[in-house]
Design brief:
The chain is mainly β. The protein has one domain: Hotdog Thioesterase (Thiol Ester Dehydrase, Chain A). The chain is 13% helix and 38% strand. Strands 1-2-3-5-6-7-4 form a 7-stranded antiparallel sheet, covered by helices on one side. The longest helix has 18 residues.
Length: 136
């Protein structure tokens, strides 16, 4: 598989999810693999809600970022218009998460995407679908 990285533009360096210059950010590093966007994230104690469990809002952020990156890899700039998430199991704050985004349908104004977070054993932590609005 061919890995392609999007060059971080000046405005994105402060992004909470992927910004390299955000001191409190997640510093996600997405790559293109085939038709998907993929990243790994290793949460720690500062990413928890309940003790030892990754905060659900952070799980939502990871999924939103994956679905935004996959549209960008297809050359389409989008923002999330609607997102629905199904949590399957808690993620512990001491295990690596694998984040995947893919496009399921697109037209001129809207893109439908799917995101998921998996553990190393392939079990699914959360699945999401989103309707992304094309803005440029």
């Amino acid at each position: 598989m061919r890995n392609v990285k999007i060059k971080t533009e000046a405005g994105f360096k402060k992004c909470f999810a992927c910004g390299s210059e955000n001191p409190i950010g997640l510093k996600l590093n997405f790559r293109k693999e085939g038709e998907t966007a993929m990243a790994e994230f290793f949460p720690d104690q500062y990413h928890q809600g309940w003790p030892g469990i990754v905060h659900g809002g952070l799980i939502c952020t990871l999924l939103d970022e994956a679905m935004g990156y996959v549209t960008r890899y297809q050359g389409v700039k989008t923002i999330t218009a609607k997102m629905e998430i199904k949590f399957s199991k808690p993620a512990r704050s001491d295990q690596k998460l694998y984040i995947i985004g893919e496009i399921t349908q697109k037209n001129r104004k809207l893109v439908k995407t799917r995101g998921r977070i998996e553990l190393e054993d392939g079990s699914v932590v959360a699945d999401a679908t989103a309707l992304m609005y094309v803005f440029a």
